[in-house]
Amino acid sequence: MGDARTLEFDVVGVAEAGAIRILRISAADADLATQRAQDEGLRVLSCQPRPSGFFWTGNTSKSNTVRLDIALFAHELGALLNAGLGIIDGIETLAEKERSSETSRVLGRLVRALKEGRNFSAAMRDRPDVFPQLLIASIAASEQTGDMAAALGRYSSNFETLREIRSKAFGAAVYPLMLLGVGGVVVLFLLGVVVPKFSTLIESSRGEIPFASMMLINVGKTINLHPQIMGGALICVLLSLISAFRRASRAHWNLPILEKLPLVGILIRMFRHAQFYRTSSMLIEGGISAVRAFEMCSSLLSPGDNKQLLRAVVAMREGCAIGPALQGVGLADPVALRMLTVAQRTGQLAEILARIASFQENTLARSIEVATRLFEPVLMLLIGLIIGAIVVLMYLPIFDIASSLQ
């Protein structure tokens, strides 16, 4: 028998100098990938299987079937802690109400680890596929300051805010996608059904047919004579779109091609910046240093901005102020620069970062609304022109026939 199948894992760790490193390691399982990262001198924060293709790759064990709403978990656990329950009692309560047996077992393992004397953050690190790195870091910081309930509340609020912005963006795209779908169906119906029937009448007249109309008739006949091929092509296109959507979602939409799209790329970059500022604010408020928080949030940015952030972090370590360091690499506009300058004087960095995030989120919401109002009429006009062109090209030979009869 051969060796076990080799899988790919995304490993996030801290190097000796304190820098965050992200490695892609091939190994038989997560434990071996973690061990290899530790052999390279990293303190591993998370190790997650990397998806590939249309389906999830990685271990097919039950661990991959855990479906835990992290924001809801953080909110409910924080509420239980504020109500006076201990951390063990709170997690046991959440495990009892959980409907998923596997998720309930994960929470049960957390309880057993806590009863054995382990820290909550250390127990969560055992399941990086369930608990995000940022939540683990927030909990680890709160264990030093004693405000775990507040840390859970901040994480839940931050997660819900970002999810609300993401929902608005997807909601704005629903109508254009529906318009494209309906318009595509109408165009295919005209080409595959209506045009071939008109072609019989037009060709029986034996009159001269304009070149554009002849091209339209040939396309319609091809679609009408080979419906299986067209259906297969449509299914392939649909599956390709679904696969591309799944890959983009798993990559947290950090795809270079999206950055290059006109208008869309600007909106995506603005969302990532707002996400970076808000999450950094949450971590700093929880007691994590600014430089460390920026390093931990680097994965929220695009690959290009991620590299620029690392340059800014190096400048901060060398004594440069936060505002000029971020502006120098294009991660802070003039408004953010002035607000960060104020934060340097007042010491309210977490609050200022949250305000910058709110400012950018409001700008993003307005930009999405404007883009939607502009794009929808343009899309409707384009679909109308295509359908109108098909109708005109169908009737043009008939007009010629009528003129010849007169």
Automatic annotation (TrEMBL):
The superkingdom of the source organism is Bacteria
Where does it live in the cell? Cell membrane
Which UniProt keywords are listed? Answer: Cell membrane, Membrane, Transmembrane, Transmembrane helix
Write out the transmembrane intervals: 172-195, 225-245, 378-398
Bilayer topology annotation: Multi-pass membrane protein
Chief place of localization: membrane
Pfam family example for this protein? T2SSF
Concerning its family, UniProt says:
Belongs to the GSP F family.
Q: What is this protein called?
A: General secretion pathway protein F
Native organism is Glaciimonas immobilis
